[in-house]
Design brief:
By secondary structure, the chain is α+β, with helices and mostly antiparallel strands. The chain is built from four helices and eight strands; from the N terminus they run αβββαββααβββ. The chain has one domain: Electron Transport, Fmn-binding Protein, Chain A (Pnp Oxidase, Chain A), CATH 2.30.110. The structure holds flavin mononucleotide. Its cofactor is FMN. It comes from Paraburkholderia pallida.
């Protein structure tokens, strides 16, 4: 199974380091347990991957609903799909909001200004507005490079299970793996 584990993390690493060329695993769908108990899913950008630690990271707004949901129930499920290759990766894990100021600051400083705009918005995500333009009003303190930093949230997911599915013409293989004591265990299952 080492080969499958390595393949999965290589695809996720490519997603996190996409740069100019987009990787199919740059955008993942992240599912949480909603405050109403129902499933909630949304797209996130995969920002970092640590195959050794079995962990990945994404950025979000601390004011968003998903953060409230994860504070209540940290279980998270992530899904990525490479349509051309016929590969699906499903992950389950435990999310934690990183408190370290240094870690958050380092990421903030190396982020492209464009990707920080959302954190500078004065309105809490999901606030009802009369028209989309209302959310675009120039937020105060834009000239301050730290404006919005207090809303910038780094989420780390400790991955506990991997469900790998290869439905390519030569594939038709599925593997289920789980992480115990820092090592991956598992095997092939019927697709
Ligand atoms: C292409 C794309 C990428 C996105 N990336 C992120 C992201 O990295 N982090 C994030 O919090 N929201 C991201 N979003 C927005 C979320 O999908 C979602 O709409 C938003 O975070 C609010 O979700 P929530 O109310 O469940 O917290 C992205 C949306 C799109 C369309």
């Amino acid at each position: 199974m080492r080969e499958v584990v390595d393949r999965v993390w290589a695809m996720l690493s490519a997603g996190a380091n996409a740069g100019a060329t987009r990787s199919p695993f740059t955008m993942l769908q992240a599912a949480t347990v909603g405050l109403d108990g129902g499933p909630k899913v949304r797209t996130i950008v995969l920002r970092g991957v640590s195959p050794e630690a079995g962990a990945l990271t994404f950025h979000t707004d601390v004011r968003s609903e998903k953060v409230m949901e994860l504070r209540k129930d940290p279980r998270i499920s992530l899904l990525g799909c490479d349509l051309d290759a016929g590969i699906q990766i499903r992950l389950e894990g435990i999310a934690r909001m990183v408190d370290s100021l240094d870690e958050r600051m380092a990421l903030w400083k190396t982020s492209r200004p464009h990707s920080l705009i959302v954190y500078r918005a004065q309105l809490v995500p999901g606030t009802p507005i009369a028209s989309p333009e209302e959310a675009h009003r120039a937020p105060g303190g834009m000239s301050d490079s730290m404006a919005g930093f207090e809303n910038f949230c780094l989420v780390t997911v400790d991955v506990q299970t991997i469900d790998y599915l290869d439905l390519s013409p030569n594939g038709h293989a599925r593997a289920k793996l789980s992480r115990q004591d820092g090592a991956w265990h598992g095997g092939w299952v019927a697709p």
